Amino acid sequence: MDVLKHKCFLEELLFWTIKYEFPQKMVTFLLNMLPDQDYKIAFTKTFVQHYAFIMKTLKKSHESDTMSNRIVHISVQLFSNEELARQVTEECQLLEIMVTVLLYMMESCLIKSELQDEENSLHVVVNCGEALLKNNTYWPLVSDFINILSHQSVAKKFLDDHSLLVTWMNFVSFFQGMNLNKRELNEHVEFESQTYYAAFAAELEACAQPMWGLLSHCKVRETQEYTRNVVRYCLEALQDWFDAINFVDEPAPNQVTFHLPLHRYFAMFLSKAVKCQELDLDTILPDQEMLMKLMIHPLQIQASLSEIHSNMWVRNGLQIKGQAMTYVQSHFCNSMIDPDIYLLQVCASRLDPDYFISSVFERFKVVDLLTMASQHQNTVLDSEHERSMLEGALTFLVLLLSLRLHLGMTDDEILRAEMVAQLCMNDRTHSSLLDLIPENPNPKSGIIPGSLSFESVLSSVADFKAPVFEPGGSMQQGMYTPKAEVWDKEFDPVMVILRTVYRRDVQSAMDRYTAFLKQSGKFPGNPWPPYKKRTPLHPSYKGLIKLLHCKTLHIVLFTLLYKMLMDHQNLSEHVLCMVLYLIELGLENSPEQESDEEESAGGQERCHDSWFPGSNLVSNMRHFINYVRVRVPETAPEVKKEPPASTSSDGLASSQSSRRKSLQRENSGTAQVFSLVAERRKKFQEIINRNTSEANQVVRPKTSMKWSAPGATPQLATAILEVKESILSLLIKLHHKLSGKQNSYYPPWLDDVDVLIHPEIPRYSHGDGMTAVERILLKAAVQSRLNKRIIEEICRKVTPPVPPKKISSAEKKTLDKEERRQKARERQQKLLAEFASRQKSFMETAMDVESPDADTAMEVATSEQHVSEAIYDCVICGQSGPSTEDRPTGLVVLLQASSVLGQCRNSTEPKKLPTTEEEQIYPWDTCAALHDVRLTTLQRYFKDSSCLQAVSIGWEGGVYVQTCGHTLHIDCHKSYMESLRNDQVLQGFSVDKGEFTCPLCRQFANSVLPCYPGNNAERGLWQSHSNKCMQDLVQEVEDLQEQLGTFPVSISSETNLSKEMESVMKDIKSTTQKKYTDYSKSPGSPDNDFLFMYSVARTNLELELVHRGGNLCSGGASTAGKRSCLNQLFHVLAMHMRLYSIDSAYNPWRKLTQPMQDKNSELVSEELPEVPVLYRDVSSLLLIQILTMPQPLHKEHFTCIIKVLFTLLYTQALAALSVKCSAEDRIAWKESGALKKNTSSGEKSWEVLLGHVISELSKGKIYEEGETEELTLVNRDSVECYLQQFCLPFLRITSLLQHHLFGGDLPSCQEDEEFTVLANCLGLLPSFQSAHQFTSASCLDWPVPAFDMISQWCSELASFAERHPDQVKVLLIQEPKWGLPRLLQLPENYNTIFQYYHRKTCTVCTKVPKDPAVCLVCGTFVCLKGLCCKQQSYCECVLHSQNCGAGTGIFLLINASVIIIIRGHRFCLWGSVYLDAHGEEDRDLRRGKPLYICKERYKVLEQQWVSHTFDHINKRWGPHYNGL
Fold it and tell me: Does residue 550 contact residue 591 with C-beta atoms inside 8 Å?
């Protein structure tokens, strides 16, 4: 290289820029001046002048990656301009500089090639272990070269310049044969080198990419000359290479290199010449000898692929499999395997077919297997690899003869075939299809993925399956799946085999094909790969057909069919399948000139030394072969008799003596043993001699024995086999064998002659081996009348049964094994059955078997109460039994704090996620906020302890209890937890926090709820209706509440059960945060616990109601029927609530059922008054009453409590209504009520009651304060409707409670009947009336005269109104209609969210956060992992999840489009609800496609949030250590 001489400042500047490895500021400075045209030219020339210096600096650099990027940053601006590139090429020899620099660069890391002749090889290759290749340091220079070759003017200059081409081929030959693999035969390699990555990348980038660039300019006839140049220098380089490695005609054994760039250049330019430039192939092909050499290495690769898949290279480690996979992988295949197979196709079409076929079998090492003898010795292959190598050889031949990628398919057909192959293996997403279809690397071809042709082909071969959700919750992407007609007509197993990286994909394609045939009713069994018609061959490659019509192939096919029929070892169905495929290919592609009657012996003399008379498959199929001479080991069964007088042709592994003149050739004696190999040698010598001596006479070499028997041959004896079969007769017998019936084949044309005229019958297109045989026989008959006649004859002779198999000792062993296994299986079955019956009888005798389902339907016997205890199965120890005091059983439960209820709003439409500054969400109208305000207001004016019984808490941070329905002994559970604690495996949960997974169903859980050891009597007690009057029941309830502490499980004595109940209560309390349990003014007051406990019951009932859709219209057992543990939960809560006594003076029950005597005492007392009854939440009162009664509760008492509470609820409804109507309405109602007051049914008419309420409340200052929004209640119906809606929430909760406590299904109904149906179900309606004259008031059942009670309740309000007139109405109006909880509504297009939030600043530090996120429950903007917002080591997302969802947070990560769930101390990635047009996620927005909301996915997310099932459905949880 020349020495640099600097003449100006620019050159000096650039020199130092390079010296200091392109500092970013300098790069920017130099590039900023480029708009100036003169500077641009000067700078480009300077850059080219320094090119070699750049290369040297780059090689030495430690930061080669950064430097590479900066070099390309500059060069891409200079060389992408065609005009500039051309100018520099002409004036500064740009091309020479680039090629020379690349050559120099690679010369620094060359090593001697060990391919072929290790000692004397003169060839050098790059060393893939060097940093230069390993780190891809060369890529900036190569990418510049590819860049300038994309300009036509520059590329043509390159293709015209012979010296440049020579240099370039020189450069390419450095990669020829690099990264050589040697098969390890003894022990496993110590160190698996990973250099193959570098090798494949180097060949793709440094050799293939420039090649595709050059090819893109050779598209028209005028460019023929360029192709000739490249091919000429390529062949010269190849010849030099063969000489350098001392290659004669045999590749060295156990060596393979996947890198033959020179072969591939040669192949691709040939392909282009024929396809685009109309060149005559023969004018550019070398002589036969060169073709023979050319085919050796690509063929070696194909055989090695088969060896690698047969596990023969297993000692070389995994990397060799990696190479085999990379070679066919989608980014490499069209620069590697495709050119190789094409080159082999070209060689096959020009060489002698017998030579080619025998080469293939010899390369695949299966020549010895191709003998008629039942035993053989293979000197080069272990017997366990024989089958897969034979399959490999036949599959390769099928590929070679079927593929038309370069032999006549158009670009669109290729794209279609590639797409079908990929879709048949698996359904694919759009992006993976783009990735898997080998793009035509040449950018100007028009078939770029994503182009029009791609989309149109895709829509014609595939159906789009929208993203679906499997019940397990795993998210599917939008997939493309092949259309039915593609499976029917276009599924091409050959293409699938060529394109599969993993062998399992071939099986997957076949399984899907099978499923399609079953589903469409085309074929029920296990089909064979279908035969697919091929695109016609381009005339230049017609010679390929000769392969199908050569005797060697026919002998192989005949031998294999015979071996299949005789059940020789090491054959498989796959072998038969491929044999039939080859026969069918031969019949489809028969040489034109063959006529039927060419049977006459005329001109047949030339080939009477071999098995078959001619070379045409159609006629050879019917040729009978009588005797075959085989060489077999002395031990074989065939060695028994002398040959009969006229011996016939012989197996492949033996002589090709003719039928007439037994041994005529002078050297046949020696050449008989491995004739295939010998024949090949002979042909090779002939060709070489023909080339050397002008005279065309054939010199037959003396074939020496050393070729016939490589390795020490065992003692071989010659035996004569009687065969008497033709290919046709073997096929028919195979048909019988496959069907398992004698005479199963009957020629179809005997019934229907049309078959011969229209042989394309759909019923033959799909099926198994029998169908394939039938299809072949039909085709043979169609092609020749003689064949047809012979098939009929064979079928007429009743075929003799297939000779019985001689069972060898090895086979006998396997048979014995099978039998032994069968017997063992039967024994096992017997034992299991015996166990089962024993267990059953034990169960029957040991206990009265009672299935838990029958609990509800207990018959109550009148004579004596037959009480059966509930039986539980422990999933750990497997024992069944009742739950007892000493050994309680428990339900596996998950306790979690939930704020879902608190998110209900007073509207049906969900709020929208804010995407502008104006749309902000304020949480004033949520259920939680309103309940909070109400409690605070009550606490201001009334006595604390009574306030805490007038409401429920738990709207935020309530504890939700759910179970998987499995039970276990509590002591078993403790030992299970111990074992988990000692288990060192990394679990997704924390055992120290009491978390575990259910031992049976693996559902996540964190506590055990003890089952109360009751019997089913409680469910039986209520069936008999009592006739006690209301007054008696009221009194009984009161008495029961007085006897506190009489809990059936005596609390004074500490039993295991009561301990467990206490511990679970602790768990329940610790589930939620302290702020959600402490509402009293005096901290730690017992009222607090009391409130918390009945609120837990309320939370669970309300949530179940939400899960049912907010009403009970659907009826039936709950969806969470099995999952519900309310019954057990009630027992635990009741036991604890009864520890707190209610002072009888304050017992709300008295206030509800007895008129108070002295009204004045209250005013005297100093402290705050009690909460007036009309301000109390009725559902809370219900729970307090139920939970403070002794358990089990009697149904009649339950009904009594409901009736009393309903009267209060109804009065509340009337009071609320009276406040809502206008003053005139009030007066009207008051008067009309007074008129009817004394009628008999006065207490059951709402008009009368409303009138009374209004008159009572008018006494205070209630109606005087400013008007509230008025309800226009025009007619009676609207009043009735208002009252029913007011009472419904209470009825729903009560019905659910009754369902859980006493069993019995919930009735289903229409929405408008819900009130009447529930009232009837609860026993409020004395007799069910028809709906039209029904009024809600008819459900009332007053324990004491109604007007007295109402007056008493109203007077409390009146006295409160005296003191605080402004608050009376605020506390009275309760709007009980809540919508269901919903997540925020998201915009259609993801961009809307992204644009607003990814620039939004953090409220704390006013910077834009690195990972912004937004809460989908309340719309708060948070920083994920942001340190600025960290408080006491909690990051913002975790903090927010605790404040907003009591530990559950749902966040959308703005920069990744994914949703992340935080649940307590764990988190998981949920997936994305935004998908692109093809239904795919774009995690981390890498592909940058427009994304749209997927409503179904969002619904699933919302569903999981509402039903609290994140823990069960999502599997990949990890701890977040408060760092999110």
Answer: no
Q: What is the pLDDT of residues 672-715, one digit of tens each?
A: 233 455 555 566 666 655 544 433 333 333 333 233 333 334 46
Query: What residue type is assigned to position 761 of the chain?
Result: I
Q: Which residue has the tokens 């276009």?
A: 490
pLDDT in tens, 1137-1188: 777 655 555 667 777 777 765 444 444 455 678 888 888 888 888 998 888 8
Give the position of tokens 């590329």. 155
Assess contact for 1517 and 1510: CB atoms under 8 A: no
Bridge partners, residue 1009, by sequence: 891
Q: Is the dihedral of CA 900, 905, 907, 910 positive or negative?
A: negative
Helices then strands (H, E): number in the chain?
59, 23
Q: What is the rounded CA–CA span in Å between residue 405 and residue 421?
A: 13
Enter the tokens of residue 118. Answer: 């290790």
Cα–Cα distance for residue pair 1380/900, rounded to 1 Å = 9
Q: How far is CA 285 from the centre of its chain?
A: 49
Place of tokens 């789009």: 464
CB atoms within 10 A of CB 1516: 9
- SS3 for 898-909, per residue? ECCHHHCCCCCC
- Rounded Cα gap, residues 158 and 146, in angstroms: 12
> Given the structure tokens 């009374």, which residue do they identify?
1252
pTM of the predicted protein model:
0.79
**In the structure encoding, which two tokens stand for residue 928, read together?**
């939680």
Token code pair at residue 1150 = 């008295």
Residues 67 and 1315: their CA atoms lie apart, in Å, by 78
Instruction: Report how far residue 17's alpha carbon sits from residue 26's, in angstroms, rounded to the nearest whole number.
Output: 7
Tokens of 1420: 């708060």
Contact present, 441 and 213 (Cβ < 8 Å): no
Report DSSP state, residue 876: T
Which amino acid makes up residue 697?
Q
Point out which residues pair with 500 in neighbouring strands: none
Listed in order, strand segments (DSSP E) in 1454-1498 are 1459-1463, 1466-1471, 1474-1475, 1492-1493
What does each C-alpha distance from 822 to 816, 818, 829, 832, 988 come to in angstroms?
10, 6, 11, 16, 42
Instruction: Find out whether 180 and 129 touch, Cβ atoms under 8 Å.
Output: no
DSSP structure class, residue 496 = H
Cα 867 from chain centre: 52
Tokens for 473? 């919750």
Question: What is the C-alpha separation between 249 and 292, in angstroms, rounded?
Answer: 8
Contacts for 1153-1160 with beta carbons within 8 Å, 24 or more apart?
1153/1034, 1153/1038, 1153/1204, 1153/1343, 1153/1344, 1154/1344, 1155/1344, 1155/1348, 1155/1349, 1155/1352, 1156/1352, 1159/1355
Instruction: Give the CA dihedral 328, 330, 331, 337, nearest 10 degrees.
Output: 30
| Nearest one of 1264, 1236, 1134 to 1192, comparing CA atoms | 1134
CA distance 369 to 361: 10
Report the alpha-carbon distance of residue 582 to residue 1497 in Å, rounded. 50
Contacts of 1008 (CB under 8 A, 6+ apart): 890, 891, 892, 893, 968, 970, 973, 1060, 1064
Separation of alpha carbons 417 and 457, rounded Å = 10
pLDDT at 471 over 70: no
pLDDT digits (tens, 9 = 90+) for 26-76: 999 999 999 999 999 999 999 999 999 999 999 998 888 899 999 999 999
Distance CA 176, CA 197 (A): 16
What DSSP character marks residue 103?
Answer: H
* Phi, psi torsion values for 420, nearest 5 degrees: -60, -40
Q: For residue 1459, list its beta bridge partners.
A: 1452, 1471
Of 916, 952, 1386, 922, give the one whose Cα is nearest residue 1182: 952
Which secondary structure element, helix H or strand E, spans residue 204, and what is its range? Answer: none
Quote the tokens at residue 762.
């759909």
